[in-house]
Amino acid sequence: GAGVSQTPSNKVTEKGKYVELRCDPISGHTALYWYRQSLGQGPEFLIYFQGTGAADDSGLPNDRFFAVRPEGSVSTLKIQRTERGDSAVYLCASSSLGGPQGNTIYFGEGSWLTVV
Amino acid sequence: AQSVTQLGSHVSVSEGALVLLRCNYSSSVPPYLFWYVQYPNQGLQLLLKYTSAATLVKGINGFEAEFKKSETSFHLTKPSAHMSDAAEYFCAVSDPGRDDKIIFGKGTRLHILP
Fold it and tell me: What distance in Å separates the CA atoms of residue B86 and residue B80, rounded to the nearest whole number?
């Protein structure tokens, strides 16, 4: 597609449930990022992929969060045993050569997760 | 660690007036700096970026920002505000020695008064 695509756009789940959020980056982009944006806050870095591997996962808040990118394209962010504090917009972004060094990072519109 | 501080979570200006959104950065190395805009119910869009070339950077929609090393600042300006500029603006920083994440500020919501 023309831009970064994220699904679902909205997800309401019950506390304790498992959730998967999908990101389809711009075709050909090797770098993929996940951010989380809580209400009234700026985007918070979670994890960065270069190809299939996670180059930096230092932003994942705990072991309930996990992300994969098995074929170097689509990525899935997985959240186990969801908590109300996980409610946020989860943003995915991609860039062509892995990072802001002269390469623009393009963001999707986000997946709004609400844990009730 | 790198960080950015945006002064003022809300800024209101009259239509046609100067827009000034403040951003100060903290970095141990000369950084790359960015301004992103987020319109309601839309994704983040890059306004402009500084990557160690010209210190005055021009972006889309008439916005520009100036990198001032002595002040560790990267303030965003626009000479004349338009109603369509109402949005959330985020300043962000990255370490050019590492091609990975960028770190965002908390954002400034810009309100345009008629």
Answer: 13
Q: What is the pLDDT of residues A5-28, one digit of tens each?
A: 999 999 999 999 999 999 999 998
Residues ≥6 apart with Cβ < 8 Å to B2:
B25, B26, B27, B28, B31, B93, B94, B95, B103
- Partner residues linked to A54 by β-bridges: A49
Dump the DSSP string for A10-49: EEEE-TT--EEEEEE--TT--EEEEEEE-TTS--EEEEEE
Q: Is the pLDDT of residue B95 over 80?
A: no
Q: Do B99 and A45 touch (CB under 8 A)?
A: no
Among candidates A3, A48, A91 on the partner chain, residue whose Cβ is nearest the Cβ of B100: A48
Using the Cβ of A99 and the Cβ atoms of chain B, whether some distance falls under 8 Å is answered with yes
What pLDDT, in 10s, does the model give residues B58-83? Answer: 999 999 999 999 999 999 999 999 99
Task: Give A-chain residues touching B102 at CB under 8 angstroms.
Answer: 45, 100, 105
